[in-house]
Amino acid sequence: MTVKDITRILEEFAPLPYAEDFDNVGLLVGNATNEVSGILVTLDTLENVVDEAIAKNCNLIVSFHPIIFGGLKKITGKNYVERVVIKAIKNDISIYSNHTALDNARYGVNAKICEVLGLSNTKVLLPQKNTIKKLTTYVPKNTIEEVKNALFKVGAGNIGNYSNCSFSVEGNGTYKANEGANPTIGTIGTTHTENEVMLTCVFGKDRESVIINALLTSHPYEEVAYDIQTIENTNQHIGMGMIGELDQEVSEMQFLNDLRLKMNAKLVRHSNLLNKPIKKVAVLGGSGSFAIGAAKTAKADVFVTADLKYHQFYKAENQIILADIGHFETEQFTKNLLVDYLTKKIPNFAIHLSESITNPINYF
C-alpha cells in the first residue's frame, strides 16, 4: 500500500475538510506515492518518535498533532521542528497529521473521551457550521432513478441516521443545441423541450468532488445543469466537544476522583464545587476554553478540558464545574483510537502504537 492509500483510509474516518481553518493537516512530509513498510501512530512527532519509526521499520508516521504548524522559512536544524523534518526526509519517512479533523469527527477525540468516562446519550457540543451542502440538478424523467442511485452510492442524501434522502419535482426543461454540440436528446439548431425532474439532495462538504463526479458520469446530457449551495443547517454529528450523561449521579468529589483515575491525570485543576450531584458531563480534548459558554448553555454539571487560564475559571460563575486535567491527558487515547481504526481497516499490516514519551509537561 502507498502513503496515499493509507491517508485515504484515514480520511474516511476524519475527513480533512472538517479541520479548522487555522490548522495544518494532511501529508506534511514525504511523497504520497511511496510504498509503506509500516505505520507508527503517535500523538506528537518528535525526534525520538522518528528514531522509533526507524527502529521499527516504519516509513509512515501518523501523528495527531502536526509537526509543521506555521510556515518554515529555513530548515537548518536550529529547533526541534526543523530537526524532525530533516531526520524524516533523510530516512525517507512520511508524516501525516489529522489534528482538528479528528477533533471534529463523529467518532473522534471527544467520542473517545466519552467512552473512557462511560458517558451515554452523547451528542456534539459545538456543531460545525457550513458543513452541509445542497445539490440541485435537472434530469430526464426516464433516467432519474439511475442518477439518484449513483448519487446515493457516494454519500448524497445522508441525513443523520437516514440515507437515500432526496426531493423531486417534475417539469419541462428547454434547450437548443448550437453548432459544435453533441446532444444526447434533440437536434442541433432546434429548441427542444424535455420532461425533466428537478432533483435536490444534501451531502457533507467532504463529499463534494465525488458527488459532482457521480453526477457528471451518470447524467445522460452532454452539458449538465446543476447548482451547489452551502446551507445554514448545522451538522449534528460534526463539531468540537461532546456532551453526555453518566449512568448514575455521583458526588462532585467522586466524579473528580474517577476522572483523575480514568484519564490517568496527575492532578485535576477545578473551579469551585457547587455541592450538587454530577450527571451531565461536557468534554473537549485539548484547549477548550472557547466552549465554556456552550457547556453552560447545554446545562452540563461539569466541563472537562485543558489549558484553562486563571481568569477563565471565573467563567464558571457557580453554574458549572470546570475541570482542567491537562492537554496531553485529554488527548492521550487518540493514538489508541487511530491504531484500533487502522487495524480494523487493514488487519494484516504493520501498525505500531508509539511507545515514545511526548508529553512536554512534568509534575513534581
From TrEMBL:
Protein family per UniProt: Belongs to the GTP cyclohydrolase I type 2/NIF3 family.
This protein's name: GTP cyclohydrolase 1 type 2 homolog
Gene3D superfamilies: 3.30.70.120, NIF3 (NGG1p interacting factor 3)-like
NCBIfam families: YbgI_SA1388
Taxon lineage: Bacteria, Pseudomonadati, Bacteroidota, Flavobacteriia, Flavobacteriales
InterPro entries tied to this protein: DUF34/NIF3 (IPR002678), DUF34/NIF3_bac (IPR017221), DUF34/NIF3_sf (IPR036069), N-reg_PII/ATP_PRibTrfase_C (IPR015867)
Keyword Mitochondrion among UniProt keywords: no
Keywords of this entry: Metal-binding
Organism expressing this protein natively: Maribacter dokdonensis
One Pfam family per UniProt: DUF34_NIF3
